[in-house]
Amino acid sequence: MGPAPQMPAPQVQPAQASVTLCNRTPSGCATGASFSLGTLRDLAIDVAWSNVPAGTHTQITEILEPSGGLFEVKSQAFGIDANSNGTIQTEEILPVSGTMITQRRVTGAWTVRVSLDTTMSVMQTLQVDP
Amino acid sequence: MLAATLVLLTGACSLGAREQVVIQKGTSGNTQLRAADSWIDGANTGTNHGAATTLQVQSLIGQAQRTLVMFDLSILPNAGIKSATLTLKVVSPPLLARTYSANLVTSFWNEPDVTWIHRVATTPWGAVGGDFDGTVASNANVTLLGTTVSWNVTKSLQTWYNGTPNYGFLIKDNTETDLVATTTKFSSKEDATAANRPTLTLTFLQNVVNLTATPGNNAITLNWAYPTPIPAAQGGSILENYAGVVILRRTTAPVDKASFPADGVAPPALCATVGTGEVVFVGTLANTSFTDNSANNLCAGAGGAPANGTMYFYKVFTRDTANHYSSNPAGLPAPRDGGSVFSAEAGALPNPPGTTQAPLWLIGTHSSVQAAPGIEPGSQIDIGTDTNQLFALDATTGQHLYPPVSLGGIISGRPPVIDATSASIGKQVAYVAAQDNYVYAIDTTTGAILWLSNPNGSTTNLFQGGAAVQLKAFSGAAYTLANDLVVVGTRNGGTTNANSIIGLDGNTGTVVWTYTGTAVPSTSALDIISSTPTIDYVNNSIWLTSHANGGAGQPNLWRINPLNGAVLFSGNFNGIDIDSSPTLTPNADVLFVGTNGTTTAPVVDGRLYAINPKASSVVPVVSPAVQGAVVAFYDDGNDGSVEGFPFVTNAAPPYTVIYTTNTQVHAVSFDPTTNTFTKLWTRTIFAAPFPTCDAGVCSLSAPVVATSVNMVYTGGSDGFLYELNLSTGVVVKKEVVDTHYPAVVGDPSLDEVKQRVYVSTTTNDQRSYGFAIPF
Q1: Does residue B220 sit in the same domain as residue B198?
Q2: Fewer beta carbons within 10 angstroms: which end of chain B, N or C?
Q3: Rounded to an integer, what distance in angstroms lies between the CA atom of residue B592 and that of residue B620?
Q4: Does the pTM exceed 0.90?
Q5: Yes or no, beta carbons of B333 and A118 under 8 Å apart
C-alpha cells in the first residue's frame, strides 16, 4: 500500500487591481477614455483591490505626463483584516482644474500606474484633449 | 557608540572621506530639534505617548504596541549613505526572544498627537496602527539578556537622501498574535540620561561643495572644494580619507539619476561610459578644478572636448581610498530610484566671450515644481515640491542647508518666507499650505515645524495656491489683530460654492476667522481657489481670486476684511474662472486682475482688468467711483489665460504692467487719470513653426521684472528661461535650462539682493536653478 495521496497545496492568488479613471465634479464622476482640459476638474483614480493578504499595505500611484516623465507620485496606506476577503476600494484625486496641468496646457496621453507594496502594478491611460 | 579610527592625512589638512557620525539627542551638542518618537497602543487606541521616557513594543493579539522613531538629520544636509544603524537601548527586555522589524513609515505623523488611530490631531492613519512600507527594512532579535537592539537601516537612509520623504521608522513585533503579552521597553529621546537615547549611526561620503561651471571658448572650467568633515565634537569621525573625484559629463541633458560609479570598484577609466554620462576626469585630492577642453579631454566622439553652442552637464562624485563614492546605490525602490539624485551637478554652454551661458547652480529636486521658490533675498531659497518636501537651499551655492523638511502633502504654491524681525512669531518663518489640508509654519533656519493646523478638520480642502501673510509690523492702526495673519484659500473640487477663505494666527495656527461660501445668494458662492491672496496694507483688505464655476453666475474676485473674514466685495469679471493672483500698485490705488481665457471654442480671451480697490460699500456696480469697479480692461487678442500674476513695474502712475499669456509677453501702460490702457509691446515667444516643447505644447510661466537691469524673465516649456528688454520686449537672451527633454520651466523668483533669478522645472528635468542677471 503506497503513501496516502498528498492534497495539493492551496494556490495563493496574487493581489489584483482594477483601475477606473473618472472626472470628479460636484455632480458625480464621469468615466471615459478621454477628457477635455476645459471640463476636467479632478481626475479620480479609483482602484478595486482583491486577493490582498492581511496586513498593512502601501499603494503607490504614479502619474506620468504625455512625454513619459513622472509628474506626481501619491502614497496611500490601508489595512486588510485577517478575517476579511482581501478586497478594498481606494481613491486618489489628481487636481486638474486650476493647476499647472491647465495653466501650462499639458495635453496628450497620460498614464496612471498603480502598484501595491512595490510588488505588482497595473496601468491605465487616458487622453487629455485641449 | 562605535569606536572609530582617525587617520590623519600627511602634509595636508585632515579631510573626511567615508565619514561616520553618531546621532543621539543630547550628545555631541546635538539637540535633535526635529526628532520625534512615541509608541502607539492597540489596547488604548486614543492615547498619545509622545512625552514618555520609554518606547514600547508588545505582542498580544488585539493589543499590540508599536514604536515610532524619527531622527533629525540636519547635521548631514546631503550625502551618499554607505551604512546606517538604528540602535535602541533596552530598559525592560522580553521574557522570551522576539524578532522585531523596523519599517519605513509612509505618512506624516506628529509626536504630540500620534495614537494608534490618528497620526496628526484628528487625521487618521490610512491603516490603524500606523502606515508603513510593506517591505521590512530590517529585522533584529531581542533577547532577555540584550542591552541594546540594532537594525541595519542602510537602504532606508539611502532612500531618504535620494528624494523620499523621511517619516522615520515603525518598530513592531513580527508576531502580534500571541495570547500572552510579551513586551519590551526601550529608552526614548526623553530619557534623562543622554547615553540611553536612540542612536543612528551613519557612514557616508559628502558631496563636493561650491561647485561651479565657468564656460569659455570651447572650454568649461569646473571648480569645487572638498567638504568639511563633521568634527568629533559633533559625533563625527573619519574611516577612510578622500582620494579625489570622478566627474561624469553628458551632452545637452543632465547626467541622470541612475548614473554613478559603483562602490568598491576602482574609478572608471577616462572616456568610459557610466550610465548616461562619460568619464571626463578622475582627480586626486590635490585637484579642485578641471578645465574641460581639447588639451585635457582626449575622448573621442561625443565625449570629447566641448564644442561651442552646446550645453554640457556634469556630475561630480567624491571618492575615498576604499573606492566609495558620494552617491546612493542602485536598487532603491522606485519611483525614487537612481542613486545620484542629489549628487553635485553643474552645467554650462561654451561660446566665444560674451555669449556663454551657465546657471550659477542647479540641484535635483526629484519633483515637478511650477511654483516660484520662496526666498529670503540674498540668503535662502525655500522650494515646495510634490514629494511633500520643503527644500531649503543656500542662495549663493544652491546647496542644501539641511535635509528637506518632510510634510504631509504636496506643496504646489509658493511659500512666503518672512524674516525674523518682521514676523510676529520672531523667527525666520515660511508658511506652507499643503494638499493634505494642513498649513505649516516652518522655522527656515532649522527646518523645525513651529506649528501645523488643519483649519476646519477637513479631508477634502487641499490647498493649491500659496499662503499670504499680513504682517502686523507693516500694518496700520486699523489692523488690531494680535499677530500676523496667514491667509489661505481652499481647493475643494467637490463643491462649486462652499469653498473657504481662512485666516490663521501666524504665531499659533489658530483659526482667527473663516469665510465659507454658500450657494445662495450667488454673490456668496465660492468656487475653488488656486491662486495666492494679495494683502492690501493701504486699504486694510485681502484680495483673492477664485474660479466662478466656469461662468458669470458667481464671483471670481473677493475683497475680505482681515480682522473678521467678512466679505467687503465680490464680483465676477469676464464671466470666467480666474487662476492668477491679483496685483496691487505700491500705492494700492489700482488692482490689476488677469482672468483665464480659452483658445478653443467657445473662445474667451483672457483680460487684464484695472479695478478700483478703494471705498467701503459692498456694491458690485460697474462704476469708477465704487470699489471693485472695473476702471478699464485690456484685451490682448486671444492668447488664452493670464498666467500667474500681473507684474507692476513702477511705483507711480502711469503704471507699466507686464503679464504673460500662453505664448506671449505683454507690456501695457495704465493711466488712472484717464482710466486707459495703452499697449507698449507684445512679444510672441512661441509661434508656428513651434519649437520642441514638453508634451508638444509651448507655454510660458508667469513673469518677473528686474527693473534694476531693465529686464523681464519668464520660463518656457521649451526648456529655456527667457530674458526680454523691459522697454522694448525684445528677447535679449534665453538661457538653457534643459532643452533635451525639454523641461517645463516654472515661475521665476527674483532676488534683488543677489541679482539672481531662481526657477524650478517639472517632469522630465525635476531640478531647480539659479541664474545671475542680466544673462
Answers
A1: no
A2: N
A3: 17
A4: yes
A5: yes
